[in-house]
Amino acid sequence: MTNSLKIFAGSSNLPLAQEIGNYLEVKLGERCIHTFSNGNIKVKIKENVRGADVFVIQTASPPVNEHLMELFIMIDALKYASAARITAVLPYYFYVRSDKKDEPRISVTARLVADLLETAGANRILTINLHAPQIIGFSRIPVDQLSAVDHICDYYKEIEDLTHFIAVAPDVGRAKTTETYARYLKMPMAILDKRRNGDDEKAHIRHVIGDVGGKNALLLDDEILTGSSMIEGARALQKRGARRILAGCIHGVLSEKAVTNIENSVIKKLVITNTLLLDENKKTSKIHVLSVAKLLGNAILAIHEGRSVSKLFNL
């Protein structure tokens, strides 16, 4: 390996990739991505990568399948251009919610994505806040998972007096993670008892475990799709006496009418990160976006130099 660090970006989140490149003072690699009239994708690497340590940035934003295929083809092109090592940098992991076989005869697609990344030629994976920890175990190549939750916690610590706040887990499955955040913020903790029926993405809050009466609530989750789950949770907290309700999530998918629904909800502020590019028509005063460029940039540099990635964690 020539030890030259090169960063290439797919078309899913170019502003984040450019921000990472600027932080590391590394110019993004030249490539050409062309989609033919029949839907086929062609990727051409337009510079020498022989023996280089290459990082490919692509996130699971719509159109998800097109961006995933584009990633596979880009990795394949880099492999056949003789890159020494290829790291797939996935700020938001593809098919991250399909992490278990909870129905008969379905695919565990997050595991399939890990297999296909290896087959395409990726040597390792760098990602942020997976939906479930077992996804790391799906991969036979090394996976580094970063956490951006401390970014959200630190932001709220700067702008709010958190003395009378309580950290709220969106469901029982997130209780252990939320406990870590609660300790970091020195808050008590509550848990929402949430149920879903089928694939309708609508959550039903049956109980709130913990006393939220008279307190301000900080509702934390790893991602928001339509927003119905978080909005329903906020409504349940308000009914049980919570005063101000703030929210934070890493991956703001914000599909369908999520932004409108959040804007009209009892949630006072939602903090997300730029693992996914927020469209201009989705930007509102209630939604604040934090950048993960420095976090990813430091991890890329640590991997490139053979240093520990775990030392980047605050939680």
Task: Describe, in plain words, how this protein is organized in 3D.
Helix content is 31%, strand content 26%. The chain is α/β, with parallel strands linked by helices and 315 residues long. The protein has a 7-stranded mixed sheet, sandwiched between helices. It has a 5-stranded parallel sheet with strand order 1-4-5-6-7, sandwiched between helices. Strands 2-3 form a two-stranded antiparallel sheet. α1 packs across α9.
Chain-wise SSE layout:
Blueprint: E1 5-9, H1 14-24, E2 31-35, E3 41-45, E4 53-57, H2 64-80, E5 85-90, H3 109-120, E6 124-128, H4 134-138, E7 143-146, H5 149-159, E8 165-169, H6 175-185, E9 189-196, E10 203-209, E11 216-224, H7 228-239, E12 245-252, H8 258-263, E13 267-273, E14 287-290, H9 293-305
Parallel strand pairs: 1-4, 4-5, 5-6, 6-7, 8-9, 8-11, 11-12, 12-13, 13-14
Antiparallel strand pairs: 2-3, 9-10
Helix pairs in contact: 1-9
For the structure shown, list the relevant keywords.
7-stranded mixed β-sheet, 14 strands, 9 helices, 315 residues, Rossmann fold, alpha/beta, globular, 5-stranded parallel β-sheet, 31% helix
How would you summarize this macromolecular structure in one to three sentences?
With 315 residues, the protein is an alpha/beta fold. It has helices at 14-24, 64-80, 109-120, 134-138, 149-159, 175-185, 228-239, 258-263, 293-305; strands spanning 5-9, 31-35, 41-45, 53-57, 85-90, 124-128, 143-146, 165-169, 189-196, 203-209, 216-224, 245-252, 267-273, 287-290.
